Amino acid sequence: MLSCENLYYRYARKAPWVLEDFSHDFSEGVHLIKGYSGCGKSTLLRILGGYLKEQRGKVHVDGYKKNNTKYQKQDLGFVFQQLNLLPLASVQRNLHLAASLAGISRKIRNKNIDTYLKHLGLLDFKKRLPRSMSGGQQQRATIARALIKEPKVLLLDEPTSGLDDLNTEIIINVLKNFVNEGNRVAIICTHDSRLDKVADDILDFNRFLPMERHLEALAGTAG
Fold first, then answer.
1. Nearest to 153 by CA among 40, 8, 50
2. CA separation (Å) from 141 to 44, 126, 131?
3. What is the per-residue burial (b if ≥16 Cβ within 10 Å, else e) of 18-27?
4. Which site in 31, 145, 180, 210 is 20 to 30 Å from 119, CA atoms measured?
């Protein structure tokens, strides 16, 4: 469904490559990308979503000639670490806007809003502003916003970071059911081992970019 071929990316011309000749195929199912901070997980996710442009190589998305704005609007759901909910819009309005940009009819929008807010335990909060909600509730609302257009590709950057076990279990169940209901792929950057049980594939980025060895001494783990 989604693949990358010989990707290269770095943030400055003379800086080390964050991604160097990286290739991988992401088929239907749930894929975890794991690894140390700074190893390129989030960079890859943004390239797959079209928010960063690869400097060499190619990204292939089923049904699209290239990774473009139509793909972003219609078939991509993206959950950023920063959440990015519109602060002056209710949860319901945040979801309506995302679905409207994807060209989804009002009737289906209303149905999907209630469906995904219910699945995520937020149906009673749909009139609330994000600032009036807990961090866990805001994270679940952000996931609902990504799911509302029922995308083929779902990209999530640390979606359970800082969450308790109950919130995490709710998110795990929703993601598993969402992917299983259709021909969909979810790619999750995470340090959270609680997500391992839902994974069809775990990609260890430590194989591609070794840990900065000077950090071992600071962490007290140097041999």
1. 50
2. 24, 9, 12
3. bbbebebebe
4. 31
Two structure tokens written together for 3? 């693949």
pTM: predicted TM-score of the whole model, two decimal places: 0.87
Which position has the token pair 């945040």? 94
The string of pLDDT tens digits covering residues 157-180 is 999 988 899 999 999 999 999 999
Dihedral sign computed on CA atoms, order 181, 185, 190, 192? positive
Cα–Cα distance for residue pair 208/24, rounded to 1 Å? 12
Q: What is the CATH number of domain 2-219?
A: 3.40.50.300
Contacts of 182 (CB under 8 A, 6+ apart): 150, 152
CA separation for the pair 34, 66 (Å, rounded): 26
